[in-house]
Amino acid sequence: MKPRSQAILVGIFAFAFLFAKKVPVSAGTPDHWAFRPLSISTTRTPAIDDFLLAALTKQNLKPAPQAPWSTLLRRLYFSVTGLPPTPAEMRSFLESPSLAKYEAVVDKLLAAPGYGERFGQHWLDVIRYAESEGFEYDRHLPDGWRFRDYVIQSFNDDLPFDVFIREQIAGDESESPTRQALVAAGFHRLGPVRRNAGNPDVALSRNEVLTERTDIIGPAILGLSIGCARCHDHKLEPVSQRDYYQLEAYFAATTEHNVVIASDAEQRRHQAATQAVQEQIAPLKKSLTQATGDRKKTLAAEIRKFEEQLPPDLPTITSIRNAETNRTPIHILNRGVWEQKGDAVGMRPPSALVPDELAELPADTPHPRTRLAEWLTSPDNPLTARVIVNRVWQHHFGTGLVKTANDFGRNGDRPSHPELLDHLAQTLIRNGWHLKPLHRMILLSAAYRRDSSLDRPDAARIDPENRLLWRGPRRRLSAEELRDSMLMISGRLNPKAGGPGVMVPVDEELIALLYKPAQWSVTPDPSEHDRRSIYLVAKRNLRLPFLEVFDQPPPINSCARRESGTHAPQALELLNGRLANDLAKAFAARLQHDAGPDSGARVERAFLLATGRPPNDEERRLSAEFLANGSLREFALAVFNLNDFLHVH
Amino acid sequence: MSTESPQSRSIPNRRAFFRNSFGGFSSLALASLLERDRLSAAPAGPLSPRPSHAAGKAKSVIFLFMAGGPSHLETFDPKPLLNRLDGQPRPAEFGEARYQFIQRDARLLGSARSFQKHGQSGIEVSDLFPHVARCIDDIAVVRSCHCDQVVHSAAQYELMTGRVVPGFPSMGSWTIYGLGSESGSLPSYVVMPDPKGALEAGQPMYTNGFLPSNFQPTMFRPGRRPILNLDLPPGVTGAERRRTIDLIRRLNESTLKPGDDAFAARISTYELAFRMQTEAPEIFDLSNERPETLALYGIDRQPTDDYGRRCLQARKLVENGVRFVCVVSGGGPGNMQWDAHADIEENHIRKARETDQPIAALLRDLKQRGLLDSTLVLWGGEFGRSPEAQSGKGRDHHNLGFSMWMAGGGIRGGQIVGATDPIGLRAVERPCHFRDIHTTLLHQLGLDQNRLSFPHLGRQERLTFLEGQVIREIT
Predict the structure, then answer these.
(1) Do B99 and A199 touch (CB under 8 A)?
(2) CB contact under 8 A, B23 and A638
(3) Which among A192, A228, A556 has the least Cβ separation from residue B459?
(4) Which of A198, A549, A616 sits opposite B254 (nearest CB)?
(5) pLDDT at A41
(6) Which residues of A fall within a CB distance of 8 Å from B458?
(7) Residue A365 Cα distances to A92, A360, B211, B250, B327, angstroms
(8) Given CB atoms, is B277 within the 8 Å cutoff of chain A?
(9) Nearest to B150 by CA among B316, B311, B346, B390
């Protein structure tokens, strides 16, 4: 171990010792690493690699050398933007590659809109974002996409993460909330909501909504599973039922609020226009109830015609507000059943994370969610920072320092490098909770830049999972990256950012599976269909088969980390699917255009676009042989199926 | 409680891995597979056949899902007293019930159906099901089912996943998670929705939830080629595509490093995909079936053609090693399901005519082929229907007492389990919750509800939320 690391460790221990004495910790607080305060490294700032090398040296592991520049550049582009570098970008870098130039690319990419579009998707996974409510009606949130744009914009602007959390938790509670803050507070509207016809069980529905809003806080922000404590004290974590309902109490007054963003005059005009059409429809609807046969059809057609004349909905923000008069009294519920009310509770963070003497806030405390947000992002809570730095780490390395990114509890994984995790968390806070410097630090580390090749049996034997990061990351593209890259290398990607969720054409059979097929109305402008996947509508009851088969998670539960399956339906999708074949044609046309009539030049171009490298001799030979009497379109399709296209090395 | 995951269960050989087609493996499994390979044991996918926890009698399940909620009062649970009380309010001694639509002042509605004893067992079945009635000695009727929800979506989630909210794995996904697949060129878990339309809970009720995507259902689509992307795109010939797949393989092999199992696995999926393209359609092609078989299922005749085809396909699927098949009756607007709010007679006569003969044909066909012993057939909906009338002659949703039945897969038929009270309101004798149905189903497959679990958000989740009980009388 290097002397510097030793010094750090001494510092950590010394600090932990002092800290443990100073801060009164709940008597019941279990001795669990994640609940302890952040340890502080010495004043001298060590680099990420110092921590990693110490652990590698201990295991006698020699780290892999740096990956070839072309491999590294492709890795970097996907890591930050989710798209491959263009051949021109590759060329200009490879003319005279250097670490300084690499650093400049890191900065360029972190400043590009693609950064928010890629890292934003991860946050949307974590908070199970969707624009529709799921269940039977799968109702669409009014302009629900504004929340997605808020997330992308916030990451691109490098909004401090603590502010980002505060806006989502309590953006609506400020004196005169900005539009951005109201959109952010739409966070609480993102969970599935059950709506029913008939005798609605108001209290039951309210309980379901409160449960949904409480449960997500645990895994998404605290990295703590708390949902189990709804019905009984958590068996594995120090979270009691009381803790659960005290957390729920912060949401007791939270109710849906759709904010129309139009002037009063506009709203009046809209209302008048709507009413005029409705007045025409009303008598027709009345007749329809008694009509039969052809008369019924004619009437229905007439009604549809009038409905098309209804003015488009006014711009709206899906948000929330506190309805104090309608506050739900929060009780501990026996087995989570809302009829079985136990003690009434007020607000308090989970007891394992706060000192015993911290009093519960009364149920009528004003701005309750602001209080929650303040605690979530305060230095007294060690989890929020630890959890987000671990997510950023996972984003680039494929696996977090804590493997279970949503579960830092006793049941979760232990960190592979605890000091590093705390160092990163401290650094984040010191940097004013800006995430971009953290990304930058990771991307510049030697660990991130290492070669990813697996053929090091010695190292693989000692550390098969690469927890110590003796080699660089290798991963399959995510569903969205794959679709976006296919669009990009085919020359079809529409880079437009923001705006309403796009509905692409899908098979009739899929639409027929919707309870309300009319909900799927294909976006008329076909160039919209070629936009990045994050801008496609996120509808709970209709997911695109292409994205689903490549492991896009269902937006029902928080997803901490994408699965990366390998199965035959994926091959079928890339061989026979509509998107693959459609884009193979476009890709072939582009190769023809870019490289001219020479088939050798087309092959070079295809490999460069798709894999970021020229073909090897064998690939050249096989491709030439194929193209001698095979179609360029089939060749283009084959390129979509290359392991080296589907993966980042 | 022991924890099992696909990657921790041992699988015999490498061939088993490559045999498994719709399976493959996930990143989750990858690390341990790689590790295991290095220790010179061969890797295998999570969908390779796996030993069950105990010797199970059933190898496959066919769930005949009567969506919308068929009435127990018109089918398997005769209530003479209800007929006598027709038009009267519910006597207080039967207690309270909560319905979706109808109010407290609703009047009881007698049933117009007539019931007769059938078979050796003499179990009463209504005249809606003359064909199924002839198979009654193979059937165990559970008259005392109950569940927690009285609205479609939540009840459908509970029926399929054991939870009243979406996001949990369905019983089909749990089954293939537990047992793997025995088919090389077919998906292991198939859902055949009703072509007439969707259901309230939508596709999430059938899915793998938080289980890895290898355990997802394959949704069949109506028509001749039910599996997505099995057809070549227009204008591409089989020979042309064969060349393309060969090119893909050779290109990928040219960069394959020794010991790179993940990439080798991806290469192998293309062969499997190609094989599926040629072999799977044979299952869907009914033109080679004997005319007697088609006639038995009511195929090419209305109103049985559609459900008959799907039941026959279900038989062919389990015959070829598919583990779990769900054949849905009902889809689209309520009255196209068993959701008889307006007129119980009109709705149930129509739905019964569509399904009665095909279901009986399925049972007889399975039996003839010696498959019934290893195939558990489950019949039922997400709830039953109210003893009270809705809008005069309809019935509302009802979750406190209703009927389901099981046959085959080691179930001892010709039996009745449990009973509802004399007006069919509440399961009063040997109540069986959905969790007991789930537990019994797993038990017949040789799976233990406590050992078949998966870590999710801090809990070791399983199909049953609260522990269910095996319905011992019929196993």
Answers:
(1) yes
(2) no
(3) A228
(4) A616
(5) 65
(6) 224-228, 234, 236-237, 407, 409, 411-412
(7) 59, 10, 41, 68, 53
(8) yes
(9) B390
- ipTM value for the complex: 0.89
Residues A148, A319 contacting (CB under 8 angstroms): no
What number is the average pLDDT over the span A9-38? 53
Of A8-17, B419-428, B459-468, the least confident:
A8-17
DSSP A452-508: -----HHHHHH-TT-TT-SS---EEPPHHHHHHHHHHHTT--B----SSPB-----H
Give the closest residue to B209 by CA, choosing from B458, B452, B454, B466. Answer: B454
pLDDT tens string A401-425:
999 999 998 878 899 999 999 999 9
DSSP-assigned states of every residue in B444-475: HTT--TTTS-EEETTEEE-S-SSPP---GGG-
CA dist., res. A406 & res. A84, Å (int): 29
Is the CB of B287 inside 8 Å of chain A's CB atoms? Answer: no
Question: Which residue matches tokens 């060590």?
Answer: A46
The number of C-alpha atoms within 13 Å of B285 and in the hemisphere containing its C-beta is 7
Q: pLDDT-based confidence at A44, cuts 50/70/90?
A: low
Torsion sign over Cα A145, A148, A150, A156? negative
Per-residue tokens: A466: 């690469």
What pLDDT is recorded for position B45?
A: 59
Q: Which residues of A touch B263 (CB under 8 A)?
A: 643, 647
Do the Cβ atoms of B347 and B335 come closer than 8 Å?
Answer: yes
B269:A567 CB<8 A: yes
Say how many residues make up chain A: 649
What is the pLDDT, as a whole number, of residue B41? Answer: 28
Residue A140 has pLDDT above 80, yes or no: yes
Q: Report the SS3 class of residue B88.
A: coil
Q: With an 8 Å Cβ cutoff, is B278 touching chain A? A: no
**Mean pLDDT estimate for chain A:** 90
Q: Do B457 and A575 touch (CB under 8 A)?
A: no
- On whether the CB atoms of residues A132 and A144 are closer than 8 A, the answer is yes
If we measure between CA atoms, which residue out of B329, B110, B68, B221 comes closest to residue A545?
B221
- CB within 8 Å of chain A, chain B residues 100-129: 100-101, 103
Distance from CA of B398 to the nearest CA of A (A): 13
How is chain A split into domains, by residue range? 3-111+382-475, 160-259+319-376, 262-314, 576-648
Cβ B243 vs Cβ A626: under 8 Å: yes
Q: How far is CA A229 from CA A241, A406, B209, in A?
A: 5, 16, 21
Q: Which of A626-630, B17-21, B123-127, B209-213 has the lowest mean pLDDT?
A: B17-21
Whole-number Å distance between alpha carbons of A164 and A187:
11
Distance from CA of B126 to the nearest CA of A (A): 30
Picking from A221, A234, A567 by the largest number of B CB atoms within 10 A of its own CB, the best residue to mutate is A567
In this predicted structure, the answer to whether residue A587 has a pLDDT above a threshold of 80 is yes
* Record: contact A135-B200, CB cut-off 8 A: yes
B288 Cβ under 8 Å from any chain A Cβ: no
| pLDDT at residue A66 tops 80 | yes
- In this structure, are residues A347 and A372 in contact, taking their beta carbons and an 8 Å threshold? yes
Among the ranges given (A596-600, B178-182, B402-406), the one the predictor scored with the smallest mean pLDDT: B178-182
Q: Are A135 and B193 within 8 A, CB to CB?
A: no
Query: What is the rounded distance in angstroms from the CA atom of residue A586 to the CA atom of residue A592?
Result: 10
Nearest-neighbour CA in chain A from B432: distance (Å): 20
Residues A55, A420: Cα–Cα separation, whole Å: 11
Each residue's pLDDT tens digit, A603-626: 999 999 999 999 999 999 999 999
